[in-house]
Amino acid sequence: MRKKTGRYGEQLSKKYLIDQGYFILDSNYRTKLGEVDLIVQRNDIVVFVEVKTRNTMTFGLPREAVHYKKQTTLIRLAEQYIQYKKIKNMGFRFDVIEVQWNNNKGQYEVNHIENAF
Fold it and tell me: Which residues form a coiled coil (predicted)?
């Protein structure tokens, strides 16, 4: 169930980002270090996006799951991606997108946190 919820949150996040004028460069970019959910670009900025989806607040806000260790991993993955793709003359940042899903009402809310860390 968690994977299904997470995939749905990533789909909603992609749609949201495209609607905001971002271009999707990569989804679920994975190396031996870990995974970046979305890598997007708008103008001259490449954004590494961690998507956290929750359907309950039992474990706190979705953004709270992007702790120091996860941030460190994302930074290392971004460095690898930039070198591998030979990206130059671009800015970079790390965003978090929270998707809060209410199963009872069939509604969701997307909260895009730019420059999250």
Answer: none
Gap between the Cα atoms of 17 and 67, Å rounded: 23
Q: Residue 52 — pLDDT band, cuts 50, 70, 90?
A: very high
Neighbours of 81 (CB within 10 A): 19
Residue 104 has pLDDT above 90, yes or no: no
Domains of the chain in start order, with CATH, are 2-113 (3.40.1350.10)
CB atoms within 10 A of CB 46: 20
Strand partners, 50: 96
- 3-state SS, one letter per residue, for 8-71: HHHHHHHHHHHHCCCEEEEEEEEECCEEEEEEEEECCEEEEEEEEEECCCCCCCHHHHCCHHHH
**Side-chain half-sphere exposure of 22, counting CA atoms within 13 A:** 22
Full-model pTM: 0.92
